[in-house]
Amino acid sequence: MTETIHETFARLMTLDRDVLAIAWLSLRVSLTAVAIGLLLGIPLGAFLAVTRFRGRSALVGLLNAFMGLPPVIVGLVLYLVLSRSGPLGSLGLLFTPGAMVAAQAMLATPLVAALTRQVVADAEDHLGEQLRSLGLSAPRRAGVLVYDTRFSLVTTALAAFGRAISEIGAVLVVGGNIDGHTRTMTTAISLETQKGDLSLALALGIVLIALVVTVNAVAALLRGHAVRAYG
Amino acid sequence: MVVPRRGFLTLGLLALFGTVAPASMDRARAEPASIVVASTTSTEQSGLFKHILPAFEAKTGIAVKVVALGTGQALDAARRGDADVALVHDRPAEDAFVAQGFAKARFDVMYNDFVLVGPKTDPAGARGTDITAALKRIAAAKAPFVSRGDRSGTHSAELRSWKEAGIDLPAVKGEWYRDVGQGMGPALNTASALDAYILADRGTWLAFKNRGDLAILVEGDKRLFNPYGVMLVNPDKHPTVKAKEGQAFIDWLVSPEGQASIAAYRIGGEQLFFPSANVSPVTKAKP
């Protein structure tokens, strides 16, 4: 065990450009997926928070449950859809970074929507009546409340990023872990573990954790700056 | 209360989407010619592709994207049209693939062999040169045995060996027979942790680093011969198959240059794969 740890740190010093390229791909895929998740999830969550209609609570319950969607199932379904023999096979997306973005976006969107709904619903408890008395339509009210809670929604974005960058089940199936093309941090770690090169796997794991911590730190800095500037 | 205006969140989102999305899409588009090769975990995890592909890519400009799966899964992916070329090691399954019309031809590429790996102390007394005798002793001793259990070429070979040993696996298997359903590497990791016996391909074993107390106990039995074949997916079945580029890869693999590149791959001085194009594979089996 201690031997592995010693080796791990030795390996960390010698990580090469390949690792940087893999880390960069992971970052790009996950950030893109989170961006899509935010674009789809925030309006959906906010809409569910400010409106009342039949079946709404069932939809909210479903959304909350989908926060726990198993990545490998998402990967499998997407594989069958994107396969050349599947309905969207003509897109030729299988085993490309685009397929991995789609898979992670499918994981991020329900998470963003469910958390946004909660945050916006809480804000609505305080401000909803006031907004309605101004005669604002539901989309307008949703917009105002999202803007009001924007700093809390940063945490939602970070949660979605955490889910996207750490998952392996979906990207492995739809990406194929192709060297130099669809190999991400998590699939690389898994591959090195499979090869029995545990110290390299652990070194890559440390890089991944550093990446996640850095993204979170940057978000915290931006948020702090924004709160001072616009809050 | 504030009225929504273009806050940093919106801008940040747009910036993210504007810069990140095209970047990740670019990559797929920027590569002029590329093929997808469905292959086995043994070829990928042994490091063979990393060794031979740069020469082919430099010569032809065709990028080779290897998806490493078990042989059964790799052939399934090829059947669905998700790969252009399949490079696998399960002769009966490959012949069926050709017979079903999913490929027009199968080429011999190379071979290596399977080895029975187990704890150095060899509690079941399996050491020797006879795989069936070894398996009989392991079953009799109910010594821990790890099986791939994933329809891979190695799994098929293991099941064939039990059959040849005259052992009715479903009848005798119990707690000692661990079916892990994973690739060669994870199965070896499990065997290493459990001090169990396992049938492995020599290439992955040589490249494997977490050996613990495991060592090769049985090798050299001609029944452990492990031939690899390569097939172009039939473009008549799947028009999206890149037949020209895929065939170029196959032609290169079986050419003197490709065969020499395969033969040159060594780990710790040991050759992992032996070229077998254009020769009758069984007669060239490793003794």
TrEMBL record, chain A:
<protein>
    <submittedName>
        <fullName>ABC transporter permease</fullName>
    </submittedName>
</protein>
<dbReference type="InterPro" id="IPR000515">
    <property type="entry name" value="MetI-like"/>
</dbReference>
<feature type="transmembrane region" description="Helical">
    <location>
        <begin position="198"/>
        <end position="222"/>
    </location>
</feature>
<feature type="transmembrane region" description="Helical">
    <location>
        <begin position="62"/>
        <end position="82"/>
    </location>
</feature>
<feature type="transmembrane region" description="Helical">
    <location>
        <begin position="151"/>
        <end position="178"/>
    </location>
</feature>
<dbReference type="InterPro" id="IPR049783">
    <property type="entry name" value="ABC_perm_TupB-like"/>
</dbReference>
<feature type="transmembrane region" description="Helical">
    <location>
        <begin position="21"/>
        <end position="50"/>
    </location>
</feature>
<dbReference type="InterPro" id="IPR035906">
    <property type="entry name" value="MetI-like_sf"/>
</dbReference>
<keyword id="KW-1133">Transmembrane helix</keyword>
<feature type="domain" description="ABC transmembrane type-1">
    <location>
        <begin position="23"/>
        <end position="219"/>
    </location>
</feature>
<comment type="similarity">
    <text>Belongs to the binding-protein-dependent transport system permease family.</text>
</comment>
<keyword id="KW-0472">Membrane</keyword>
<keyword id="KW-0813">Transport</keyword>
<keyword id="KW-0812">Transmembrane</keyword>
<feature type="transmembrane region" description="Helical">
    <location>
        <begin position="88"/>
        <end position="108"/>
    </location>
</feature>
<dbReference type="Pfam" id="PF00528">
    <property type="entry name" value="BPD_transp_1"/>
</dbReference>
TrEMBL record, chain B:
<dbReference type="InterPro" id="IPR052738">
    <property type="entry name" value="ABC-Tungstate_binding"/>
</dbReference>
<dbReference type="InterPro" id="IPR024370">
    <property type="entry name" value="PBP_domain"/>
</dbReference>
<feature type="domain" description="PBP">
    <location>
        <begin position="29"/>
        <end position="257"/>
    </location>
</feature>
<dbReference type="InterPro" id="IPR006311">
    <property type="entry name" value="TAT_signal"/>
</dbReference>
<protein>
    <submittedName>
        <fullName>Extracellular solute-binding protein</fullName>
    </submittedName>
</protein>
<feature type="signal peptide">
    <location>
        <begin position="1"/>
        <end position="23"/>
    </location>
</feature>
<dbReference type="Pfam" id="PF12849">
    <property type="entry name" value="PBP_like_2"/>
</dbReference>
<keyword id="KW-0732">Signal</keyword>
